[in-house]
Amino acid sequence: MLANIIDGKKISADIKDEVKNETAKLKEKGIEPCLAVILVGNDAASQVYVRNKKKACEYTGIKSLSYELDEDIKEDELIKLIDELNNRDDVNGILVQLPLPKHIDEQKILLKIKPSKDVDGFHPYNTGLLSIGKAVLKPCTPAGIIELINRSNIEISGKNAVVIGRSNIVGKPVSMLLLSENATVTVCHSKTKDINKTIKNADIVVAAVGIPYFVKEDMVKDGAVVIDVGINRLENGHLAGDVDFENVSKKASYITPVPGGVGPMTIAMLMKNCLLAAKAQNGGGDI
Ligand code: GUN
After folding, report:
1. How confident is the model at residue 160 (pLDDT cuts 50, 70, 90)?
2. Beta strands, E only, 78-149
3. d(CA 76, CA 35)
4. Could you tell me whether strands 4-5 and 63-69 are parallel, antiparallel, or unpaired per DSSP bridges?
5. Ligand 1 mean position, distance from CA 139 (Å)
6. I need a surface site. Which of 151, 157, 173, 242 has the fewest CB within 10 A?
7. Comparing 60 with 284, which gets the higher pLDDT?
8. Which class is domain 140-263?
9. Which atom of ligand 1 is nearest to 270's Cα?
10. What predicted TM-score, i.e. pTM, was given to this entire model?
11. Fold: same for 30-114 and 140-263
12. Cα–Cα distance measured from residue 163 to residue 214, given in angstroms and rounded to the nearest whole number
């Protein structure tokens, strides 16, 4: 079998266009969605992500406010800024780009963001809602994975889904979302025994392990749906997924490429969350 390639660029562009239309409608009612983006320090990858998030805001018509803070800023000062943004009625979403410098406690900072403005979906209040299937602001990459599957008309209900990796940003939340979609979910990690046997049983494989080409052709079932969340920079500068795409694509029924698969979905879903937050804060539903 030669897999259908799931086009994350196309699907993310569709979502951004939907957000753009909805944003224009909100603006007609006098509501301008606004995202505040906070970047601390000089991490090169974070700078690229933040630039792309601002560009997506421009495209969709969402206003963006940018805060670029020194690497050695005190935790208290960052918290003061978050408090100010929490209290501003014109700011609907607050995003603190991760990772933060080592002297700042990431979990402490994420707890300070008002849950209704937490467009990353990282606040424990929102992860709690996610675990009971009631989240409005869902973490962007996991929500993007579900969109990729749904918009490819792939049934999730009743399928065996195996998630490789248990991070707070991807592995755990995507397993919650798959469970909400009625999949039977197994989460594998570094201590899992006989991981190959578990993966072989999967109708849907989500690879979020951070090891280049970890998932090989002989590990997956014929016709499996394979979602690759990996963004691994190789020594030669090339980008590699967690899946050996060239060979696994001969066996899977659907597969996402790297780049151009899950990657572009994260920012599209962030835009969607900004829109949802703006609507909810203006009487259009609860968060
Ligand atoms: N760093 C890596 N991924 C993300 C993300 O989705 N949101 C934020 N804020 N930081 C990140």
Report:
1. very high
2. 93-96
3. 22
4. unpaired
5. 9
6. 157
7. 60
8. alpha beta
9. 6
10. 0.97
11. yes
12. 13
Question: Do 204 and 211 meet the contact criterion of CB atoms below 8 Å apart?
Answer: no
Secondary structure E strands in 53-92: 63-69
* Residue from 47, 98, 127, 270 whose mutation best tests the ligand 1 pocket (most atoms within 8 A of CB): 98
Distance 205 CA to ligand 1 centre (A): 22
- For residue 98, the ligand 1 atom closest to its alpha carbon is 10
Full DSSP string of 4-24: EEP-HHHHHHHHHHHHHHHHH
> Cβ-count burial of 286 within 10 angstroms (0-12 exposed, 13-18 middle, 19+ buried)?
exposed
Q: Report CA torsion sign: 50, 54, 55, 57.
A: positive
Structure token digits, residue 164: 């490789």
CB neighbour class for 205 (10 Å; exposed up to 12, middle 13-18, buried from 19): buried
CATH hierarchy code of domain 30-114: 3.40.50.10860
List, for residues 50-99, the tens digit of each pLDDT value. 999 999 999 999 999 999 999 999 999 999 999 999 999 999 999 999 99
Task: Kindly report the average pLDDT of the chain as a whole number.
Answer: 97
| Residues within a 6 A CB radius of ligand 1 | 95-98, 120, 140-141, 169, 266
Domain ranges of the chain: 30-114, 140-263
Task: Summarize the confidence of residues 128-151 as an average pLDDT.
Answer: 98
Structure-block tokens of residue 68: 């670029």
H/E segment holding residue 83: helix 75-87
- If DSSP codes are grouped into helix, strand and coil, which group holds residue 91? coil
Reduced to 3 states (helix: H, G, I; strand: E, B; else coil), residue 241 is coil
Q: Is 27 in contact with 63 (CB distance < 8 Å)?
A: no
Paired tokens of 229: 């969340």
Check pLDDT > 80 for residue 1. Answer: no
